[in-house]
């Protein structure tokens, strides 16, 4: 609801239908208008935002601004972040490697080293991120070595932690411990990490995190 006229229309409709009105209006003037209109037309209502706002304001020792966040202007920075998030989601887990040159950051690592969560986090900061999985027996895409090597970062992880993460993943997928593949076996986990470390050593311009 953007203005008082529309607010009154909604409350009047609620009165005609015998409906309950729950509102979360940050603007105190709009909230008061809603309360008065509900009383006037006999509509049961509740300002469900007010108690929470008051508690937070008291705890922090500040006064609420009363300005709805929805009215904040859509800036260039906002659209840059949206564009970055869309790019990152489309280029997850090695997808569209021919577009690696368009990424601001490229993350490389074995499965379950946190490539996707970190990619999304960075995208929310406005960076376009691609991530490339390291899989034994599968060559890395040639595009990876054609882009600016200074924007590539390697991800590694403690093998014990990685095994625990992979075991949880296998369980989530519905596989029993006995039927799980090499994916979560410690010897395989260590072998993958060692393979990945050799790749990082061959590419010293990639910082390893």
From TrEMBL:
It holds the Pfam family Kinase-PPPase. One of its GO terms (molecular function) is ATP binding. It comes from the Eukaryota. Keywords: Kinase, Nucleotide-binding, Serine/threonine-protein kinase, Transferase. InterPro entries: Kinase-pyrophosphorylase. NCBIfam families: PRK05339.1. This is Pyruvate, phosphate dikinase regulatory protein, chloroplastic. The lineage of its organism: Eukaryota, Viridiplantae, Streptophyta, Embryophyta, Tracheophyta.
